[in-house]
Amino acid sequence: MTARSLLKSSSAALSGLALVTIVLASSLSGCKRHEETAKRTPVTPPPAIKKHLYSAEADPKAEIAAALQQAGTEHKRVILDFGGDWCGDCQVLDIYFHEPPNLELLNNNFILVHVDIGHFDKNLDVTDKYGIPLKKGVPALAVLDSNGTVVYSQQGAEFGDMRYMYPASVTDFLTKWKA
Question: Does the first or last residue of the chain, that is N or C, have fewer Cβ atoms within 10 Å of its Cβ?
């Protein structure tokens, strides 16, 4: 094999590797696991600067226990929000949670706990306990009563395309599941 043919085959292999890397990176850049979303215009694009919502250092079991205790005292329910700071749809859900009338509904009826799922590889025991199928994507929500009983567990990708949804979808959700 000549040096020229060796250089050509190495160049072709590197080009192929670069293409595979680009395809993988673009397919994992959204919040849905291994799914591609159609080319659509977002209702609310994810913020350019991500807000820190999901703490990698937090103990979700302790946070959930504290939230349940507070919910019992305040006669509220607990929303578990599974996601990651990297997730644009998780960021948009947080934006919608903090807009009127959602903020008032949230504050009056729920205790919100953010559960970091890493890159679909963290706190999997917690997602399993509350019936969250992460393979469908994030954000994923569960609602607990003040005793810790699951009253709602997202089974599809109901909020997986949050950027394409309107704030009223969050209003409807909060109204339906409020205490």
Answer: N
Q: Number of structural domains, the chain?
A: 1
Residue 21 in domain: no
**Spatial distance between the Cα atoms of 89 and 46, rounded to a whole number of angstroms:** 7
What pLDDT, in 10s, does the model give residues 113-157? Answer: 999 999 999 999 999 999 999 999 999 999 999 999 999 999 988
**What is the span of the domain harbouring residue 85?**
60-177
